[in-house]
Write a structure and sequence with these properties.
By secondary structure, the chain is mainly alpha-helical. The protein is built from five helices and no strands. Helix 1 (about 25-35) packs parallel to helix 3 and helix 3 packs antiparallel against helix 4 (about 90-120).
Length: about 130
């Protein structure tokens, strides 16, 4: 009988590009996925390359900024796009695009948070909740 890998139930928000925590090379797949979320110029910053938790933190900040930018674009589309000469049909399509992007960025933000938590917890004792500390 062949040995089987431990089964891990992952959140639906866990990125499919990242192997489950504890599996072989999972950290490598996590860092590759996180690096892909950042502008290419960040690939040369050694603190982000050497410290996976810093990379995850920066990716989380980056995604949050993208969410804010898309929200502003969505909220101002109806008022600002007509003044730029954009046709009403294009405005409606743009609004739908921004709404879909917000959903996708929300999933991405949850995935980054899950990966960051897994990187932080890797090899560390489980965190105690505030109730357990009392």
């Amino acid at each position: 009988m062949l040995p089987t890998a431990p089964t891990t139930t992952l959140s639906p928000d866990w990125p499919c590009q990242v192997k489950p925590p504890g599996s072989r090379d999972w950290e490598r797949t996590a860092t590759r996925w996180l690096r892909d979320l950042l502008p290419a110029r960040y690939a040369g910053y050694s603190p982000l390359v050497r410290h996976h938790v810093l990379l995850a933190r920066h990716a989380q900040i980056q995604v949050q900024h993208e969410i804010r930018a898309v929200r502003v674009a969505l909220q101002t589309s109806r008022a600002e796009l007509p003044t730029l000469g954009v046709a009403p049909a294009v405005i409606e399509n743009t609004i739908r695009m921004y709404a879909m992007e917000l959903e996708q960025l929300g999933r991405l933000a949850r995935g980054v948070r899950l990966v960051m938590d897994a990187l932080v917890d890797d090899g560390a004792p489980p965190r105690r909740s505030p109730a357990q500390r009392r």
